[in-house]
Design a protein that fits this description.
By secondary structure, the chain is α+β, with helices and mostly antiparallel strands. Helix content is about 30%, strand content about 25%. It is built from twelve helices and 19 strands. Strands 9, 10, 11, 12, 13, 14, 15, 17 and 19 form a nine-stranded antiparallel beta sheet that branches. The protein has a four-stranded parallel beta sheet with strand order 3-2-1-4, sandwiched between helices. Helix 1 crosses helix 10. It is globular. It starts with 5 loop residues before the first strand and ends with a helix.
Length: about 375
C-alpha cells in the first residue's frame, strides 16, 4: 500500500492503544471507533468516532477515514464486519470471526480439523447438563457460547447442587445465556502462544509462554515457558494449525492446556493481540502489535526472537472502584529494568486491567522476581 496509510481499529481500549503506538512508529495514521468518547486509543487521534459502530453516520465516517481495518475484540457482529467489507478490507475477516466468536462453534471447528480440545457439548436443556455430568463427572465447566472473557461467562460445577444456581446466573445475563459444557482439565500448566499470519501465508511464531491465572484472569506471563521440547513443538504445531484452519490473517492468541502426561489441548483462540503477548513489546525483536499490522498489510513479518533469555509480564488490575489513575508510580520506576504501561482508562473497577509491567532477565526466576517486586511497589 502507498503512504499515507490510515489504519482503522474497531474498538478503543488498551489493545487498540498499543496497536496505535506501533502504527505511529511505522508512519501511519489511526482511526478509532468506540461506543463512548475519550477511550484509551481515541485520545491518541483526531480521527475518533465515539458514537460507535451501531451509529450509521459514525460508522460510515470511520470507514471513509480508513484504508484498512482491524479489530481489538471478537465481540463485534460478523454481519457488521461483512457490511464493512463491501467498502474496505477487514482482517481478521467476517468468515474467520464467525468461526471464533461463538465458543461452541469454535470448539466444533477445531475438533473437525483434528485439533485436540477438551470434550464439550452444546447445552439445550437442563437434562443435557445432567447427561454431560453423568458422562464426564464432576467438576466440569459451564461456559457461555458468546461474550466470555476474564472469567465472565464461566462457571465451575463441583456437584449437582451447583447446577441450578449456575443456570439462574447465566439466565440473568442475555448476552451469555447460550451455554455449552466442557470437561474439566486437571492441567499442569496453562500455556499460550502468539501466531501472526499474513495474506501470503507467511507465519511468524512467538515463544510458548506460561500464563498464570488468578480468578480466571491472567495475572502473570512467563516467557519462555519451562516445558519439555516435546510439549513446545506440540504447542507450536497445534497453534499454527488453529490459525490455518480458520484462515486467519493478523495476530492470534492461542490459549492451551498442558496436561500431566505432557500433551497439549486447545482452550480457545483470540483473533487479535492478546494479554499473554504484551511481553513482546520489550522482550522480542518485533512486538505482537507490529506484526499484527505487518500481517494485515501483507508486509514481511518481523522476527519473533527474544532479545533476552527470559521475560515476565504482570497485569496491574484495579483494586478499587473510582478514578483510573494511580496515586504513586515513583517506587516502581525507581527499580531497574522495569517497563511500565498504563492504559489511560478513566475508571477503575476491581479486577479491571489497568496496565501491565514487563521485566527482562537472564533467567526466568530473575525476570519473575523483578516483575513481582515492581508490582508490589506500585500504588493505586
Amino acid at each position: 500500500m502507498n503512504y499515507p496509510i490510515t489504519l482503522g481499529i474497531l474498538g478503543g481500549g488498551q489493545l487498540a492503544k498499543m496497536l496505535a503506538q506501533s502504527a505511529y512508529q511505522l508512519g501511519m495514521n489511526i482511526a478509532i471507533i468506540e461506543n463512548h468518547p475519550n477511550s484509551p486509543s481515541g485520545d491518541m487521534t483526531k480521527l475518533e468516532f465515539s458514537r460507535g459502530w451501531n451509529n450509521a453516520e459514525d460508522l460510515q465516517a470511520f470507514i471513509d477515514a480508513s484504508d484498512i481495518i482491524t479489530l481489538e475484540n471478537e465481540f463485534i457482529d460478523p454481519a457488521l464486519i461483512e457490511r464493512i467489507e463491501l467498502q474496505r478490507n477487514v482482517f481478521p475477516n467476517s468468515n474467520t470471526l464467525r468461526l471464533i466468536q461463538d465458543k461452541y462453534i469454535q470448539k466444533t471447528t477445531l475438533k473437525n480439523a483434528q485439533i485436540p480440545v477438551p470434550h464439550f457439548q452444546n447445552i439445550e436443556s437442563l437434562d443435557s447438563i445432567y447427561d454431560f455430568a453423568k458422562k464426564f463427572g464432576y467438576p466440569f465447566l459451564l461456559k457461555s457460547r458468546t461474550m466470555g472473557y476474564d472469567g465472565y461467562g464461566n462457571a465451575t460445577i463441583h456437584n449437582e447442587m451447583e447446577i441450578e444456581s449456575a443456570i439462574q446466573k447465566f439466565k440473568s445475563d442475555p448476552q451469555r445465556s447460550q451455554l455449552y459444557a466442557e470437561e474439566y482439565i486437571d492441567f499442569s500448566k496453562e500455556l499460550a502462544i502468539m501466531i501472526a499470519r499474513n495474506q501470503s501465508n507467511e507465519i511468524a511464531v512467538y515463544p510458548v509462554v506460561e500464563s498464570i491465572q488468578v480468578n480466571h484472569i491472567c495475572n502473570q506471563v512467563i516467557a519462555p515457558a519451562e516445558i519439555s521440547e516435546n510439549a513446545r513443538m506440540q504447542a507450536i504445531d497445534i497453534a499454527k494449525k488453529c490459525v490455518e484452519t480458520i484462515e486467519g490473517i493478523g495476530i492470534f492468541g492461542i490459549e492451551l492446556f498442558l496436561t500431566k502426561d505432557d500433551s497439549i489441548l486447545v482452550n480457545e483462540i483470540a483473533p487479535r493481540p492478546h494479554n499473554t503477548g504484551h511481553y513482546t513489546i520489550e522482550a522480542c525483536v518485533t512486538s505482537q502489535f507490529e506484526n499484527c499490522i505487518r500481517a494485515i498489510l501483507n508486509l514481511p513479518l518481523g522476527s519473533t526472537d527474544m532479545i533476552a533469555p527470559a521475560a515476565s509480564m504482570i497485569n496491574l488490575l484495579g483494586t478499587r472502584s473510582g478514578p483510573g489513575y494511580p496515586s504513586n508510580i515513583k517506587k516502581t520506576l525507581e527499580l531497574r529494568n522495569v517497563s511500565l504501561h498504563l492504559y489511560n482508562k478513566k475508571e477503575s473497577r476491581i479486577g479491571r486491567k489497568m496496565g501491565h509491567i514487563t521485566t527482562l532477565g537472564n533467567t526466568i526466576a530473575e525476570a519473575s522476581a523483578s516483575a513481582i517486586k515492581a508490582k508490589d511497589a506500585f500504588e493505586w
